[in-house]
Amino acid sequence: MRNKRVKRICFIGIVAGIYAVTTILLAPISFGNIQCRVSEALTLLALLSPDAILAVTLGCAISNVVSMMMGASLIGFVDVIVGTIATFFAAIITYQFRNARLKNIPIISALAPVIFNAGPESLEIIRAKNSATYWKQASVKATVDAVLSFNTKQDILGSKSCQGQARHVEF
């Protein structure tokens, strides 16, 4: 009994370590606008053992925390939470559908890591890069530029183009 428990813990630790090290060594492609994590292939180990669910989830959490501390991740703490949860669900679906096969190939299990990791990660990166703060700043900057490029109130209200050089306005 104890020997089996030790084997399970060792398996989880080894797979988590392989996931984390692979992701960190391949950091240029593992983190960024487009993430290609070679280590996500380990999610398919859930076809063989339910212990792989915890192993890849732990490995993903470790690699995301390390990348956040190194500054490699664009979305930081959000990647730790969202990315780890996405990997967890991908591993669970891989395990749950391990017996659903088409011509003896576990298609659904093989697609789970792709589907679960592509969606949430991409949405978080898009949200982080195009946040409301950016659009507010861009809108304010455009408004200030438009207003300050005119000379007088009459130019602002009545004219389509400004005549002469714009004056500096002190606030």
User: Roughly how much helix do the residues carry, as a percent range?
Assistant: 55-70%
Mean pLDDT: 78
Secondary structure tally, helices = 7
N-to-C series of helices and strands: HHHHHHH
Strand content: under 5%
Low-confidence segments, ≥5 residues, pLDDT <50?
none
Number of DSSP strand runs: 0
So what's the overall shape? globular
How would you describe the overall organization of this protein?
With 171 residues, the protein is an all-alpha fold. The chain is built from 7 helices and no strands. The longest helix has 24 residues, at 2-25. The termini are far apart.
List keywords for this structure.
mainly alpha, 67% helix
Annotate the secondary structure layout.
Layout: H1 2-25, H2 27-30, H3 51-70, H4 77-96, H5 107-129, H6 132-148, H7 153-158
Helix pairs in contact: 1-3, 3-4, 4-5
Summarize the model shown.
The chain has helices spanning 2-25, 27-30, 51-70, 77-96, 107-129, 132-148, 153-158.
